Amino acid sequence: MSPNSASRFVRACLRQPVDRTPVWFLRQAGRYMPEYMAVRRHHSLLDICRTPSIAAEVTITAAERLGVDAAIIFADLLLPLTPMGLDFEFVNGEGPVIHKPLRSFEQVRALRTDRTTELSYVAEAISKVATHFNNKRPSPGSQDTLGIIGFCGAPFTLASYMIEGASSRNYIETKQFMYTDAAWPILMDKLVTVLTDFAAQQVSAGADVIQVFDSWAGALSVADYRAYALAPTTELIRRIQALGVPVIYFGVDTASLLPTFRETGADVIGLDWRIPLDAGWRAVGHNTAIQGNLDPITLFAPDDVLEARVLEILSLAAGRPGHIFNLGHGIVPNTPVDAVLRVVDLIKRHGHTTPRAPHEATSDWAIRA
Asked: Which residues contact 233 (CB under 8 A, 6 or more apart)?
């Protein structure tokens, strides 16, 4: 599927045999890392995203510092909103703010889908990352080739930002719009069009995999997800797969949605930390790869606790092909870098892929289920 199919990361996405479990981290380039904070002293978040040389530098530095198996491009989910005609900014202490959120049919109809070339700075950054790591390729046949991840938001999550105007606890405006406004399917169609083009740019530039973030899908009931989000999400994932790369689909607080997530056809489903890995994998089916799912706050725990949690997740994966070790959400500020490095070391030493007896990989959750 991918030109980088020798990579253990890409092979794991496709549930092919690998020499060991691959590992990378959500938000691995972020505010916990001194190298990133040094860059932030001189550049805003959006400046970094929109300057290919800096975005590439931040991406490369994090991947090499940690020794992970994949680099995810430094960007932001909301970047596609600007060419659609919806400006936003980051406000200290509040996060992203959209000053004129969508609240009407006319506003949705006015959204543009023909300006995605304005996002080419992300593809340019990916090209720089790909060139850097292609120049460091290991010997032929090695699985040590680093995977490169591009990403975009999922239609529901981007729509929720566009309608709420910021992060939300209850998604009142979004759900009212979703339930009652005839513009919802039009908004979904426009987002799928823009996000497909955006992903295509990233793949053409060298992304081996695209991760689709549905950060707020956990706000939906199963019935609402099926009625209002499943079809556009599935369409987006299928269009990205048609570009020739695997797709990772990830949401937070989504244990109840996992069986439905399987219907999207994503190659990999990301698990948050709230469900044991084996139970989550059964929920999506073993014909799908799985990513996760260490609680990111465990990185603040004593070494013995951290090691026990990492080894527990590996045990629950049972060496089955298709497990990518990651967190169940992003690395948070002030996380000790040494703890992240310790997890990488543990995976490299213990991330075997030889299946074990089923009784060795069954959580208490699974026994009760």
From this structure: 154, 155, 156, 212, 214, 249, 264
Number of other residues whose CB lies within 10 A of the CB of residue 241: 17
Pairing of the two strands 95-97 and 89-91? antiparallel
Contacts for 292-297: CB closer than 8 Å, 24+ residues apart = 292/324, 292/325, 292/326, 292/327, 292/328, 293/326, 293/327, 293/328, 294/325, 294/326, 294/327, 294/328, 294/343, 295/327, 295/328, 296/26, 296/327, 296/328, 296/329, 296/330, 296/331, 296/332, 296/335, 297/332
Q: Which 8-state DSSP code applies to residue 149? A: E
Amino acid 153: pLDDT: 98
SS3 313: helix
In this structure, is the dihedral angle defined by the CA atoms of residues 251, 95, 47 and 329, taken in order, positive or negative? Answer: negative
- Give the residue with greater pLDDT, 221 vs 352: 221
The model carries a pTM of 0.93
What is the residue whose two structure tokens read 């996000």? 195
Number of other residues whose CB lies within 10 A of the CB of residue 101: 18
| Separation of alpha carbons 182 and 328, rounded Å | 35
Distance CA 227, CA 241 (A): 23
For residue range 85-105, what is the model confidence (pLDDT) as tens digits? 999 998 876 689 998 999 999
